[in-house]
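name: query_chain
kind: protein
chains: 1
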Amino acid sequence: MPDLLKDKVVVITGAGRGVGQCIAEYCSQQGARVVVNDLARDEDGKPIAEAVAEGIRQNGGQAIASTANIAQRVEVEEMIQTTVDLWGRVDGLVNNAGILRDRIFHKMSEEEWDQSIAVNLKGCFNTARAVAPFMKEQGSGAMVHMTSTSGLIGNFGQSNYAAAKMGLVGLSKSIALDMQRFNVRSNCIAPFALTPMIMAGIPRDTEEGRERWKILEKMEPEKVAPLVCALIADGGAHINGQIFGARGNEVYFFSQPRPVRTAHIGDGEGINAEAIIDRVFPMFKDDLYPLHRSMDIFSWDPV
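structure:
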């Protein structure tokens, strides 16, 4: 059995199905002891996390299930304390859980906004904050947070999701900066994968929807797990504060915002709005970013 994560303890949220389940199973195969966290239940009312954990145990791995709601800090803290009480440490956290509440912006309700932020951003803060003291004390640890090209690039009808996922990028960078002195690292992944959450939001009755399905059906959730494992493993110990992507057999690396042009107004009058309109905006015209959507940038078929 491979052992890139031998004896490590890894907590994965949203691990009851899709990408999270694949990550939990892959980490177990690499020797990790796994906490399978998912709030959802099946049609019989049974926690889907327990079914995944049981499958891991039947295959010779070590796993426990958790139904903690990551949007509730008390439940998250109880989950992490249970993990430490059982296995003595937490080496990896994978913030994979997420929800969609898609709506074009001028029709989005406050409730749809709040629900998305509560899970997709605050939930990740809750889990990261809960594991941080334990990782600090043991002098090691790795966090992996699932961001999205909906925020990094853009998509229609996802202002709540995009804001949360871009907020998560900022959270990850801040964790990386604050925790590096304790040998704790934090990175982001923007995954492409066909999951139940994604499937529910893409129509099949439009030409655009059908074209998206043709591409997404090739994006297996299993292909995200190796990158997660690599970032948690000791071989990824030098990677911190970065943003990666996983799409089929591709791994890609995202740039981060840095100044690309500068304009100095030094005619003695100082800066003013008229000068910016007349001189600065024309200078920057060829460098402005078009309003791309994710699928405009990732237009090739996955391999």
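note: The mean pLDDT is 92.
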